[in-house]
């Protein structure tokens, strides 16, 4: 078969070798060729005739197609074909549809990033506790940061005002009173000056922290709660009811207390067969979710004292499981697979048998501590011993748990504190703040949404739970539920000085029975004999006479001393 090849090639400008005809601007066999390029003595002929047996077009590798267009079909960063290229097989339509442009899921939290504060804004020289426990070891509110520390001869934790950054004095006063190491601490959500602590000495203590820095250690709690027979490793305040505190110990017992009276409200003693790993409230405090060493997640109605839902082995591994309530009553869990890979799961109470989402993360062996921000539906996962914080957004769209980003650092964390939303700086678009514990310091980490405007961002800061309780303890115990009372952060939140100090003391003094000796005197007044009463009155008269005689003697001595002094002058 005759073959006519131009020389030189009108496209490449090179020799007529078939290899040089493999140019990206020459279409594949069967497609129209380039238009005529003209004729003349010094121009290429008007048509190129190439038999298919000599035309070799390289096959492109298979590449996933996004929006109907192959990723390899367009150079990176290029929106339109290069000048002179034909729109067709290799170059898609220059105006793609809206669906083809939607590659990344739209979210206002997609660019959230974490950043540590400067060195002078950290809390230095703090001896963080080395007790083996999966507690966070740190509790934060808009006024104070509290950290469990090493202490000889008992348990202690340190309370620092948020503004007192830098190196902490080694003689800084501590909160002491427990006779064994402190395992968990938690600030009251309705009083920024009240904190509860749980200890290996089987007791729970509630403390009133003054706004000023005390001169010496705080050793006297407002109230001591005794009811556990083994060490207490978990405490958690009720989110909406005043003075209701939960404690869970290694005796597999969950107790609800009225801190205002020091009384035990409820005891959930037959629901857990092994060690309790964690306990969490739902948004209005009507339900509890617990995880246990028997590999079960239980949802409990504490006032009815019954289990309303139960899931066995949400994660197949043997390591501890954590569970928290998230939006719409769903439950978020962290655990381990059978191959010791860390997992996260999302569950619906209406169908507790199958997870909504179940994802594997990595093979680290640290237990993941979940922190949930209900206003943004973001879950932050911090593993003890890890050096990173991963965060996920929970939505109603598959896959329901969307990975956002990871904050990474060099040093591992010993514990982590999580600031409530009302303690954040809204002028800097701060949506979360963590207090990362190192071996000898506490490092705040700020999570920020990048925004150019300095105005208040309504979409980032919906109304959030404030410090006012929605219920009293007796109302909640009687069966009443209420959502948290919300406040706006438009003008920022200013903590109230020494909030409700007198109210808490009044509750305890008015409602708590007096100590034994006083009670015995009040109940035995009718049996108090008349001769004994006269004897006491006679003794009082004698004491009065003695006091009067001493006063007269002192007066006489003063007069003599005055005369002696005047005589010598």
From TrEMBL:
Residues 533-567 form a coiled coil. GO terms for molecular function: actin filament binding. Residues 1-42, 66-91, 508-528 are annotated as: Disordered. WD repeats lie at residues 175-209, 225-267, 269-310. The keyword Coiled coil applies. GO terms for biological process: actin filament organization; cell migration. SUPFAM superfamilies: WD40 repeat-like. InterPro entries: Coronin, DUF1899, WD40/YVTN_repeat-like_dom_sf, WD40_repeat_CS, WD40_repeat_dom_sf, WD40_rpt. Keywords: Coiled coil, Repeat, WD repeat. Residues 102-166 form the DUF1899 domain. Pfam families: DUF1899, WD40, WD40_4. Belongs to the WD repeat coronin family. This is Coronin.
């Amino acid at each position: 078969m005759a073959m006519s090849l131009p020389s030189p090639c009108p496209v490449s400008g090179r020799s007529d070798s078939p290899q040089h005809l493999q140019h990206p601007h020459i279409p594949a066999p069967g497609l129209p060729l380039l238009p005529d390029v003209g004729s003349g003595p010094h121009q290429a002929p008007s048509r190129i005739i190439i038999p298919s047996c000599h035309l070799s077009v390289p096959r492109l590798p298979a590449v996933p197609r996004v929006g109907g267009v192959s990723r390899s079909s367009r150079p990176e960063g290029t929106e339109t074909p290069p000048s002179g290229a034909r729109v067709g097989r290799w170059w898609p339509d220059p105006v793609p549809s809206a669906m083809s442009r939607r590659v990344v899921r739209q979210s206002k939290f997609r660019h959230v990033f974490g950043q540590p504060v400067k060195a002078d804004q950290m809390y230095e020289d703090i001896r963080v506790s080395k007790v083996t426990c999966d507690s966070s070891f740190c509790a934060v509110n808009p006024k104070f940061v509290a950290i469990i520390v090493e202490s000889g001869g008992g348990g202690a934790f340190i309370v620092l005002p948020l503004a007192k950054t830098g190196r902490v004095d080694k003689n800084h006063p501590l909160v002491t009173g427990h006779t064994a190491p402190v395992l968990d601490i938690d600030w009251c959500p309705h009083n920024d000056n009240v904190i509860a602590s749980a200890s290996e000495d089987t007791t729970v203590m509630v403390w009133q922290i003054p706004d000023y820095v005390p001169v010496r250690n705080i050793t006297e709690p407002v109230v001591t709660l005794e009811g556990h027979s083994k060490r207490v490793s978990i405490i958690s305040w009720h989110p909406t009811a005043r003075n209701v505190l939960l404690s869970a110990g290694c005796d597999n017992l969950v107790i609800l207390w009225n801190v205002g009276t020091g009384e035990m409200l409820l005891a959930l003693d037959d629901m857990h067969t092994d060690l309790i790993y964690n306990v969490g409230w739902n948004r209005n405090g009507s339900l509890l979710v617990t995880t246990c060493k028997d590999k079960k997640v239980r949802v409990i109605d504490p006032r009815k004292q019954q289990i309303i839902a139960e899931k066995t082995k949400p994660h197949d591994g043997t390591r501890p499981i954590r569970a928290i309530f998230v939006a719409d009553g769903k439950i978020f869990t962290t655990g381990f697979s059978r191959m010791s890979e860390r997992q996260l799961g999302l569950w619906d109470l209406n169908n507790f048998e199958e997870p909504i989402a179940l994802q594997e993360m990595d093979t680290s062996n640290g237990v993941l501590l979940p922190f949930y921000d209900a206003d943004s539906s973001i879950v932050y996962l911090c593993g003890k011993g890890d050096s990173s914080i991963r965060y996920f957004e929970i939505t109603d769209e598959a896959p329901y748990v969307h990975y956002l980003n990871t904050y990474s650092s060099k040093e591992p964390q010993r514990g982590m504190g999580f600031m409530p939303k009302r303690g954040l700086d809204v002028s800097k678009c701060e949506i979360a703040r963590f207090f990362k514990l190192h071996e000898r310091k506490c490092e705040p980490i700020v999570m920020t949404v990048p925004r150019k405007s300095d105005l208040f961002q309504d979409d980032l800061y919906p109304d959030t739970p404030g410090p006012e309780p929605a219920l009293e303890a007796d109302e909640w115990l009687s069966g009443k539920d209420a959502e948290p009372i919300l406040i706006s952060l438009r003008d920022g939140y200013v903590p109230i000085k020494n909030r409700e100090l007198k109210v808490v003391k009044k509750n305890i003094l008015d409602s708590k029975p007096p100590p034994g000796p006083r009670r015995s005197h009040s109940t035995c007044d009718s049996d108090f004999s008349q001769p004994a009463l006269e004897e006491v009155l006679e003794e009082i008269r004698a004491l009065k006479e003695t006091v009067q005689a001493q006063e007269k003697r002192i007066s006489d001595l003063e007069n003599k001393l005055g005369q002696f002094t005047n005589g010598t002058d």
